[in-house]
Amino acid sequence: MRVLLVEDDRMIGEAVRHVLKDAAYAVDWVRDGQDALLTIGSQSYDVVLLDLGLPKKDGFEVLRAIRSRHDQVPVLVITARDALEDRVRGLDGGADDYVLKPFAMAELLARMRAVLRRKGGSSGPVLSNGVLTLDPATHEVTAAGVTSSLSGREFSLLQALLIRPGAILSRSELEERIYGWGEEVESNAVEFLIHSLRKKLGSEAIKNVRGVGWMVPKEQ
Ligand code: CA
After folding, report:
1. Pairing between strand 2-6 and 26-30?
2. What is the CA(190)–ligand 1 centre distance, in A?
3. Which CATH architecture does the domain made up of 127-215 adopt?
4. Confidence of residue 79 (pLDDT cuts 50, 70, 90)
5. Does the structural domain 2-117 have CATH classification 3.40.50.2300?
6. pLDDT tens across 129-170, in order?
7. Ligand 1 mean position to 185 CA, how many Å?
């Protein structure tokens, strides 16, 4: 999952980025509204975390511009605890949810999972193709009754595939979902992760479509 963090406060930004990376999100961080819009126009994100008080363009302007492009990316607005009016304005302006500053990181992560779940059209907490069941809250996967823990990147890769069983993702599409800006991507990183996932889940769990990419089968 790739997240755009839009936050001008350095301490909050560093802390949130750190927590999101630990939770296996690929994170890009921009510090003003103008950069946010440029970035959203050039890269696809699974979710945007948007502070409202920002230099150059404020969060409301950014939100308005995103929605006027008919971009349906989920947006979580970050607002001050006492700013009821901002929360209402944010939600009415097309935000999907909000978090209150100062926020508990566990709550931020839970709200992100909830928003991503709704975006995926599922109301249940787990992702599944009928064979594999992945729990985004614990990073555990169950296959044939056996539950395994996944590393952050194994989780990111499998999550990207399980969101749309049957859809083929190329190497670069997978890399985009796993690595944020400034993170070095080793040339065979995707193959390496697929290999270790197959060791845990069985060789049929992830299929290679030669020259195109990888998929998890869509079970009936
Ligand atoms: Ca701010």
Report:
1. parallel
2. 36
3. Orthogonal Bundle (1.10)
4. confident
5. yes
6. 989 999 999 999 999 889 999 999 999 999 999 988 999 999
7. 31
